Amino acid sequence: PTGIRQFILEVPSVSWADIGGNEELKLEIQQAVIWPQKHPEAFERFGIDPPAGILLYGPPGCSKTLIARALANEAKMNFLAVKGPELFSKWVGDSEKAIRELFSRARQVAPTIVFFDEIDAVGASRGSEKSSGVSDRVLAQLLTELDGLEKTSRVILLAATNRPDQLDSALLRPGRLDRAIHVGLPCEATRRAILQMRTRRMRFEDSASSSTIDMLVERTSGYSGAELVAVCRTAAMFAMRENIEATIVKWTHFEAALLAVVSRTEAYLLE
Ligand code: ATP
């Protein structure tokens, strides 16, 4: 079968240490995914089922994908990733089969994290503008697969979306994506952690080297993780443009970068 080969099995190289901040979030997700793997007896003792699936929702660029990959790495689980829209473009006319193959592959190589990005492309409310005959059938197939996951199959679905309001409620029933975790814009501490990580190799002009970071933290409220990374990269580029042999990134470079990288994420939240 041609489809199977197209789901690429990865061993992600991202680790928790690569994710700045988000401490509580990391803990919550670790417990939901790793505990059932490591301590199945504890779940049995209390008679509770581990989640079959977890929904990560929130604005773009705020580490949903990073978290999924770091989790697979830490839990030593295989990682299969698919993007919702891909199912319709790469597997034209065969999207249901692609879903079947995805889960069959996941079971074969278990323990596996299936990361389903942009799940709203598949799980749009039936009858809504976005849904169609095809997408309704694909959604039905996805629900069947989720319901068919044995508690012992050691396959967990991590789904991500920027548009949780558009998901069909059938996906969110118990035994399916029964945990929803909000991955929001980085708070002050998380922004600080990301900025520190991304400027680790940079030198600043200030003597107390914390002040550039302090000013950046203050000026980046509403920026997503991806936008913070862009600010750091852009500032370094400005420093190089001024002098390719520069060893220091000056505040003026950051100031220019903040003007160049305008946060669009907050605007998106208001849409
Ligand atoms: P999308 O909805 O667009 O898929 P996402 O929430 O899955 O977004 P990621 O792909 O995980 O976002 O993050 C995009 C990039 O932003 C990452 O590759 C990384 O460079 C940076 N980033 C975001 N959050 C963090 C963080 N907490 N620590 C370090 N880097 C981050």
Number of helices: 12
Unreliable spans are: 1-5
Question: Which small-molecule species are bound to the chains here?
Answer: adenosine-5'-triphosphate
Count the E strands: 6
Amino-to-carboxy terminus distance: 42 Å
Summary?
It is found in: Cytoplasm. The protein is an alpha/beta fold.
Describe this structure in words.
Belongs to the AAA ATPase family. AFG2 subfamily. This is AAA domain-containing protein. It comes from Caenorhabditis tropicalis. There is one protein chain. The chain is α/β, with parallel strands linked by helices. The chain is 48% helix and 12% strand. The chain is built from 12 helices and 6 strands. Strands 1-3-4-5-2-6 form a 6-stranded mixed sheet. α7 links the parallel β4 (112-117) and β5 (155-161). The termini are far apart. It binds adenosine-5'-triphosphate. Adenosine-5'-triphosphate is lined by residues 19-22, 60-66, 117, 160, 162, 190, 194, 225-226, 229.
Keywords:
271 residues; alpha/beta; 12 helices; 6-stranded mixed sheet; 48% helix; binds adenosine-5'-triphosphate; AAA domain-containing protein
List the helices and strands and how they pair.
Layout: H1 2-6, E1 9-10, H2 23-38, H3 40-45, E2 53-57, H4 64-75, E3 78-83, H5 84-89, H6 95-108, E4 112-117, H7 133-148, E5 155-161, E6 177-182, H8 188-198, H9 210-219, H10 225-242, H11 251-260, H12 265-270
Parallel strand pairs: 2-5, 2-6, 3-4, 4-5
Antiparallel strand pairs: 1-3
Helix pairs in contact: 6-7, 8-9, 8-10, 10-11
The structure holds adenosine-5'-triphosphate (ATP).
